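Extended Data, panel c. Modelled sequence:
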Amino acid sequence: MQFNFDGYILKLFIHQQEHFSDSPLSQTDDSCTICYPITTVIPKNFQNFYQWYCAEYPVSDFSGKSLEYFYQISQIYTQFNLPSIKIPFLNLFLALDILLLLAILLI
């Protein structure tokens, strides 16, 4: 399955245009900070992850949905009784892989 980057950018553009023109939203966008504002204190583990992620990928912001997905992913170890990994960056890579998979599935 190949990621359609141009289609994704078009989707983001249309979504933002609908916000600014007060049009009804024709589609959802989990990265939208208007639809999903940050409403909680940002946890330190997310701040660490986001700092690393920004160094690796060209990103400009995150939404409340990003925090929600990060929280859900962090619960996987507990839900499935998985052993914790002692290498901090390996945890980040696993979380990133899961986040990217979720992003692709949501598009």
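Helices lie at 5-20, 44-56, 64-74, 76-79, 88-106. This feature is highlighted in the accompanying rendering.
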